[in-house]
């Protein structure tokens, strides 16, 4: 059992770290303050291939698979979790849906510019009344002259305000619902989706989130991802992959918080000695490190399962669940150790604290993750619980 | 036309820890990186290739087998070829011997018009490779400690040469050796796909002194290190207290007592 990271991945990690520290770290505070996506840095990242790391080179990616993607999300989030949301929404769900089930022609046309970073993607699933209950979506696609016409409103769409391409889930046969009556489409910005309300957020402010409104948006039949009626399956498969990298992003955020604590505990003095000498601080540091290392093992093992085409869905749920909760706990401990300084807007820990919370909510709330993990385990002993 | 860029693998100064038990740098925890000024030399050569794709840029390093990693990084950045000069002599050789081996390899490549390297290695800090190469290549001109290096038409290279805290605009005919200064802007990043390909598809050529037709017995003797010691711990300084007048008097008294003045 060889757990050494292959050398190409070590260099990939170093390159991503360089891009993040040189291009994103200097603008992170301002981007958060102004709630603006740092587009110039995103363009530099795209040039280095960061917007297509996992995808095959034939479709404009780097060919680094899930392992490369996990490294990307860990390193991106170590500097700025908001950028992990931008890149995660682009690669992990918008482009991934096309990669998972799209035809070769659809991949050539849409995955390639997404992987090259020439176009930015958004994933349109959530609706008012259909978040955790994704099967309850109301957005409707109706056949018309060989095309499909989409009507409906999607909410909380990451990258919505500036995306060029949208992976969209719509009902095509209400009688069948999620079991055969929901279809996934690729929609170009030029086809007419409109940006609605732009969300003002507590955290991940350097990412942009909005409503996307489909009002008589006509889409060619060739833009169906996979098969008509099977879009729910495509989107759920995509989200399974996305969950692994929510865990990876949480790992990066937690790692950064620990690094900040180690630095602070070494220098700050209380009761005439450095904080590092105080036992309760040592206990917290030990716990933070232990949780992070447990998470690291889980995330990288799950990436290995994905790349080796083994079943991984249950592990992916655990990555998302544990990752988000460990990150929140670690950042919370970091705040505790920093005292009042942790709350200062002049210190990056406060941003990390605000940014960490979303990971427990998006890509399926943690309550949903727990229900699915438990039901999956219970199914193995003959207990079948339907939603 | 070929450009050779000489790059060195060093221990990242930010990760170096000195081990008291080993009485040396603990190489287990230090990261190995491409010497940053060499990365700038490579960036400059690749910029020339961006402007004229017919140029062939070859990265070359002399040292241990681990240096293969910086050569693969050079391939990922866009070099056409990567050559590692390595054998037991080279691993232990010092600057004079390495310059002779590098020069022999450059001569073997033929049609090399430009040799570039960083202005110094951040580990030894000597900055002698450029001048030594210029001599070993048979007296090539040397554009040293240069910024804003450009290939000029008609077979010339120009740059702002730093000397005596001033910059001099200098132009030299090719073939030429150029040592490049670092600039504040970050050099280009390798593309993710090229990183993967550098390890999965491309190869690093390995040449030995014997393959270059050199006999180590006739080259400068390699240096071996017999023992390394940490300097003795520094004594804690003396804090002189009191008003400025008193402190000045005490300072003079202390310096006199120690026979410094």
Walk me through what this model shows.
The complex is a heterodimer of chains A (387) and B (261). Chain A has helices spanning 7-34, 39-47, 65-79, 81-101, 104-115, 231-267, 279-307, 313-338, 349-356, 366-380; strands at residues 121-124, 140-144, 147-158, 165-171, 182-188, 194-198, 209-220, 224-225, 269-270, 273-274. With 387 residues, chain A is of the alpha+beta class. In chain A, the strands form three sheets. Chain A has a four-stranded mixed β-sheet with strand order 1-4-5-8. Chain A is globular and about 80 Å long. Chain A starts with 6 loop residues before the first helix and ends in a 7-residue tail after the last helix. The model of chain A has no long low-confidence stretch (mean pLDDT 95). Chain B is of the alpha/beta class. In chain B, strands 11-10-9-12-8-1-6-7-13 form a nine-stranded mixed β-sheet, sandwiched between helices. The model of chain B has no long low-confidence stretch (mean pLDDT 92). At the A-B interface, helix 1 of A face helix 2 and helix 6 of B.
CATH architecture of chain B: 3-Layer(aba) Sandwich
Count of strand segments of chain A: 10
How many domains comprise the coordinates of chain B?
Answer: 1
> Numbering strands along the chain, what is their spatial order in the largest sheet of chain B?
11-10-9-12-8-1-6-7-13
Using only CA atoms, what is the Rg of chain B? Answer: 23 Å
SS-derived structural category of chain B: alpha/beta
Largest sheet of chain A: 4 strands, mixed
Give the averaged pLDDT of chain A, no decimals. 95
Q: From the 3D structure, determine the CATH topology of the largest domain in chain A.
A: Butyryl-CoA Dehydrogenase, subunit A, domain 3
N-to-C order of helices and strands of chain B: EEEEEHEHEHHEHEEEEHEH
- For the largest interface in this structure, which chains are involved and how many residues does each contribute? A-B, 22 and 17 residues
Number of helices of chain B: 7
The termini of chain B sit apart by: 63 Å
Using the coordinates above, name the CATH class of chain B. Alpha Beta
Number of domains of chain A: 3
Count every beta strand of chain B, where a strand is a DSSP E run of 2 or more residues: 13
Low-confidence stretches of chain A: none
CATH superfamily of chain B: HUPs
Give the overall silhouette of chain B.
Answer: globular
Subunit arrangement of the protein: heterodimer
């Amino acid at each position: 059992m060889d757990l050494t990271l292959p050398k190409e991945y070590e260099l990939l990690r170093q390159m991503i770290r360089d891009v993040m520290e040189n291009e994103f770290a200097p603008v992170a505070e301002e981007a958060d303050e102004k709630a603006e996506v740092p587009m110039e840095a995103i363009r530099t990242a795209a040039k280095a291939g960061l917007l297509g790391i996992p995808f095959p080179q034939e479709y404009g990616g780097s060919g680094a698979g899930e392992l490369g993607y996990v490294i990307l999300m860990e390193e991106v989030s170590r500097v700025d979790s908001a950028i992990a949301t931008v890149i995660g929404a682009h690669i992990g769900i918008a482009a991934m849906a096309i990669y998972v089930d799209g035809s070769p022609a659809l991949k050539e046309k849409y995955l390639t510019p997404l992987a090259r970073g020439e176009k930015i993607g958004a994933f349109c699933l959530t609706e008012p009344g259909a978040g955790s209950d994704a099967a309850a979506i109301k957005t409707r696609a109706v056949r018309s002259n060989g095309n499909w016409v989409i009507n409906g409103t999607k909410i909380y769409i990451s990258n919505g305000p500036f995306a060029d391409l949208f992976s969209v889930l719509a009902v095509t046969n209400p009688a069948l619902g999620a079991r055969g009556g929901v279809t996934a489409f690729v929609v170009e910005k030029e086809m007419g989706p409109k940006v609605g309300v732009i969300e003002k957020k507590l955290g991940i402010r350097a990412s942009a989130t909005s409503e996307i409104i489909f009002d008589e948006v006509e889409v060619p039949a060739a833009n169906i991802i996979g098969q008509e009626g099977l879009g729910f399956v495509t989107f759920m498969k995509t989200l399974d992959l996305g969950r692994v990298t929510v865990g990876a992003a949480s790992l990066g955020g937690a790692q950064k918080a620990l690094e900040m604590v180690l630095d602070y505990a070494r220098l700050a003095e209380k009761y005439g000695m450095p904080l590092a000498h105080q036992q309760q601080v040592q206990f917290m540091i030990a716990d933070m490190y232990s949780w992070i290392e447990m998470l690291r093992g889980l995330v990288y093992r799950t990436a290995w399962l994905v790349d080796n085409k083994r079943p991984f869905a249950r592990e992916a749920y655990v990555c998302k669940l544990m990752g988000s909760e460990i990150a929140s706990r670690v950042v919370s401990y970091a705040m505790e150790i920093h005292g009042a300084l942790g709350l200062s807007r002049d210190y990056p820990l406060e941003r990390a604290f605000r940014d960490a919370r979303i990971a427990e909510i998006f890509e399926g709330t943690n309550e949903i993750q727990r229900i699915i993990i438990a039901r999956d385990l219970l199914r193995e002993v003959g207990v079948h619980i339907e939603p | 036309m070929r450009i050779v860029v000489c790059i060195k693998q060093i221990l990242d100064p930010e990760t170096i820890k000195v081990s008291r038990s080993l009485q040396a740098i603990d190489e287990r925890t230090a990261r190995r990186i491409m010497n940053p000024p060499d990365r700038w030399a490579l960036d400059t050569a690749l910029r020339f290739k961006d402007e004229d794709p017919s140029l062939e840029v070859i990265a070359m390093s002399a040292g241990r087998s681990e240096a293969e990693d910086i050569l693969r990084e050079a391939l990922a950045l866009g070099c056409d070829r990567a050559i590692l000069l390595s054998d037991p002599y080279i691993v232990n050789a010092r600057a004079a011997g390495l310059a002779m081996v590098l020069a022999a390899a450059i001569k073997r490549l033929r049609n090399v018009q430009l040799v570039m390297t960083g202005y110094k290695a951040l580990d030894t800090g000597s900055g002698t490779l450029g001048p030594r190469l210029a001599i070993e290549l048979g007296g090539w001109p040397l554009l040293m400690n240069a910024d804003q290096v450009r290939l000029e038409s008609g077979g010339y290279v120009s740059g702002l040469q730093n000397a005596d805290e001033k910059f001099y605009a200098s132009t030299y005919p090719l073939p030429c050796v150029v040592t490049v200064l670092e600039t504040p802007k970050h050099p280009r990043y390798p593309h993710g796909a090229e990183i993967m390909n550098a390890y999965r598809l491309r190869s690093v050529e390995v040449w030995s002194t014997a393959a270059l037709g050199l006999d180590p017995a006739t080259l400068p003797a390699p240096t071996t290190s017999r023992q390394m010691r940490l300097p003795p711990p520094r004594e804690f300084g003396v804090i002189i207290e009191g008003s400025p007048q008193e402190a000045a008097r005490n300072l003079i008294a202390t310096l006199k007592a120690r026979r410094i003045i």
